């Protein structure tokens, strides 16, 4: 019987199969799922902001793409995952509000997705699939047994990636 492990905002967790990782209400935030294809050790981080070095109050590693992915990777390796076997799937990064000025600072969702992709590339972690952008929220469930990411939306249906 699989346990469902919740991952809050600016939070992360790692599990052994068959457990399921869930995060609710991804708007501009990005849910990053890492998965060791062999051991099935899985991790999820709920990222709120792109880079820790851009913010003074940066003590919570899970809040940022750069430090969150790095720490999640370390935690999974401590559990027995092999870096060479890890792949990723991501969801979120929506533009939840319309702003009259199109300044980059307000494009948090797009900046989060870009930072996630740059960080994954830095660690040589392949990005297998994504469900990002748009202007709607998502709830995601990641199965450590199958490596499938279930993306639920209001008004846009449910899909597996």
UniProtKB/TrEMBL annotation:
GO biological process: chemotaxis
Tagged with keyword Mitochondrion: no
Recorded superkingdom: Bacteria
GO MF assignments: protein-glutamine glutaminase activity
Enzyme class: hydrolase
Gene3D superfamilies: 3.30.1330.200
Keyword Hydrolase set for record: yes
Pfam families reported for this sequence: CheD
InterPro entries with a match to the protein in the record: CheD-like_sf (IPR038592), Chemorcpt_Glu_NH3ase_CheD (IPR005659), Cytotoxic_necrot_fac-like_cat (IPR011324)
Keywords recorded for this protein, A-Z: Chemotaxis, Hydrolase
Family from the record: Belongs to the CheD family.
PROSITE patterns noted in UniProt: PROKAR_LIPOPROTEIN
SUPFAM superfamilies for this protein: CNF1/YfiH-like putative cysteine hydrolases (SSF64438)
Role this protein plays: Probably deamidates glutamine residues to glutamate on methyl-accepting chemotaxis receptors (MCPs), playing an important role in chemotaxis.
Swiss-Prot/TrEMBL catalytic activity: L-glutaminyl-[protein] + H2O = L-glutamyl-[protein] + NH4(+)
Protein name as catalogued: Probable chemoreceptor glutamine deamidase CheD
EC number: 3.5.1.44
